[in-house]
Amino acid sequence: MKKSILFILSLFVAASFFSCDNSESSKNGDRGALASSAAEKVYVAPGEHDEFYAFISGGFSGQLSVYGLPSGRLLKVIPVFSQDPEKAWGYNEETKPMLNTSHGFVPWDDAHHPDISQTDGKLDGRWVFINGNNTPRIAKVDLTTFETTEIIEVPNSAGNHSSSFVTENTEYVVAGTRFSVPVPQRDMPINEYKGNFKGSLTFISVDPEEGHMDIKFQLMMPGFDYDLAHPGRGKSHGWFFFSTYNTEEANSLLEVNASQNDKDFIAAVNWKKIEEYVNNGGGKTMPANYAHNIYDDDTHTATSTMKKEVLVVDPLEVPGAVFLLPTPKSPHGCDVNPTGEYIVGNGKLSADLTVHSYTKMIDAIENEKFDGEAYGIPILKFEDVLAGTVKQAGLGPLHTEFDGEGNAYTSFFISSEVVKWNVETREVIDRKPCYYSVGHVMIPGGNSADPFGKYVLAMNKITKDRYLPTGPEVTQSAQLYDITGEKMELLLDFPTIGEPHYAAGIPADIVKANSRKIFKLDENKHEYATLSNGDARVERDGNEVHVYMTMIRSHFTPDNIEGIKVGDKVYFHVTNHEQDYDVPHGISMIGANTSELLIMPGQTETFVWEPKQPGVWPFYCTDFCSALHQEMQGYVRVSPANSNIELSWSLGED
Ligand code: K7E
Ligand code: CUA
Predict the structure, then answer these.
(1) Of 214, 267, 359, 437, which is the most exposed, with the fewest CB atoms less than 10 Å away?
(2) 583 lines ligand 2 (CB under 6 A)
(3) Signal peptide position in this chain (predicted)?
(4) Residues 515-528 pLDDT 10s
C-alpha cells in the first residue's frame, strides 16, 4: 500500500520535469499560422475597455489583483490582508485597525479564493470575498471603490482554506478549516489528535443591504482536513459541499499517513436545516475571541471590535443535516455544476474524476442507503450517490469549472493540462497543455448558475522558461484559452502577482457603471477632516501635535510649520480637496517610519511622524498631479526638546 502511494507521490515531484520536456515543441506549436488570430482575439485597442474583470488572488502576497480580460492587462492590486505602502494600507492610522486580530496586528496573509456576490444564482457585482488562510479571516472588497471594507476573523479555525464561497443569494459566505485543531484551543499532546481535534465549518451571514458579515454558526465536524467547498444551487440550493482529506486523522508525515484511505469524503451540509435549528434557539454559545473590522466610507476610517462568543452546532444535534459522500483519493476541488445536480470531487491521487449526483444523494438519504458512520455522521453508499466517473482524464486533478453549455473544465497538475469534458456523458472532449502545472482554472461566473463561457483562465504554478529570466524567482503565470469552439485555443500568457490560486471573473458591464469616481468633500465625516482652508491649523496637546492639513493642486495648507520639538508625536491629518476624477495627491515626510499616504479626492488620511533630530525637514507630494507637482512641497522646523519656539503655521507668507 505505502509503496504504491509513494509511487504516485513521486509523480507529483516529477511533474515539473514532464512539463519542461514538452516545452520546446509545445512553444513552437503555439506559433505558426494561427498565432496572429490568437493575438487579435486578445487585442484591446488603446482607449478601449476589456470585456471582463478578473479578480485573481495573490496567494502569499495576501492581496487581490484586478486584471482585464482578454487583454491580461493589470488594472489594480487591491490590498487586503497585507500591508501595502503604495496605498498606505495598514500604514496609515485609518486602515491599521483592518489588520487587527486576536493575535494583535497581523500585516500579512495567504489569500486563495475570491468569490463574487450573487443574487438568484447570478453574479451581482457588489462585492468580492476572499479568505486569509494563515490567520483565519474573511475579507470583503467593495466593488464601487475596489477597496477592502470589512475583515472578520474566524475563531476555532486554522488554515482557513475551504473558503470564501458564497451561497446563491449571498446569504452566507462560508469558511471551512483546513487544519483541525483543539476546540477550544488548549495545551495538549499533538499525538492525541485523533478523535479530539475538531474541524469547524463556519457560516458567516451577509447583510443583504450593507453587506456586513456576522458569524451565524460554526458546525463542529470530525477532525479531518476540509479542503475546498462549493455551494449547492438550483435544486441543491440550501446545501453546501466540502471536500475532505486526512480522514485518517494523521498528525505527522501526512504525505504518506493521510493517503492511506482509499476514499475520503465530500461532506454535504444542509445549511438551511441548521439555520432553522439555530433560529429556533439551537446550538451552544461558546467563549471566543475574534476581531471584526469595518472600514467606513464616510469617516474614511476603520474600527476593530473584539467579539467574545460564537454559536457552535454539533452535527449530531441536527439529524438529517450532514452526510458524508465517499470520494476517492484525497479530493482537492469540490465543484458544483450550474444546474446544481452534479458535485465533482477531484481526487488528487486518482486518475479518474468522481461525479456525484444530487438527486441520487437525496434518494440515498431518504432510503437510508448508508455505509456506516463516522463519529455518528452517516456515510452514504458510494455506488448510490455516484453519477459516474470521468475515466483516465489526466493525472493529478485539482479543480473544475463549468461553461454553462454542459461542459466542465478540469485542471490537472501532474499532466499539466486543462481537460474539457461533457458533464452528462462524462466523455472527454478536448485537452490542452498548460505551461506549467496548473492549479485552479476560472471561467467568469464559473461558480454560479449562469457562467459566461467565453474564456477559461488557467493559473499555473510554474513558468520556468516562459518569460525572460529574473534571477532565481520567476513569475507565476496565467493562461487564457478561448472556449467558444469545440476545441480550446490558447490565446495568451500573462504574469501574475504572488501565487494565484483561484480567481473570479465577471462581465465588466455589471461592475463598471457603479465604480466610484470621487468621495464628496461635503460628506466627509472623518474625525480630523479639514473641510475648508480656513480651518487648516496645528494644535498641540502635550507631546502630541495634530496637523489639520489640506491639499489641492498644487500646494499644501499650511506648508510651513514651526514649533515642533524632538520627542513630539506629530499626526498629519490630510484632506484632499480635489473633486475631480483621478486626482489623488500623496504626502510623505522625511524620516517618517511609515509609508506615504495616497489620498483620493474628498478623502482624509493620517500618518504619524516622530522627529528625532532638530532641523528643517521637508515633506512633498508623491503622486505626479499637475505641471506644478514638483512645487507641491513644504517644511517643518524641528527644535530641540527644551526649545520655546511657539507653534505657528502658514502658507504664502514670508
Ligand atoms: Cu491552490 Cu484552491 Cu488554495 Cu487548489 S488551492 S491550486
Ligand atoms: Cu499633488 Cu503631486
Answers:
(1) 214
(2) no
(3) 1-19
(4) 999 999 999 999 99
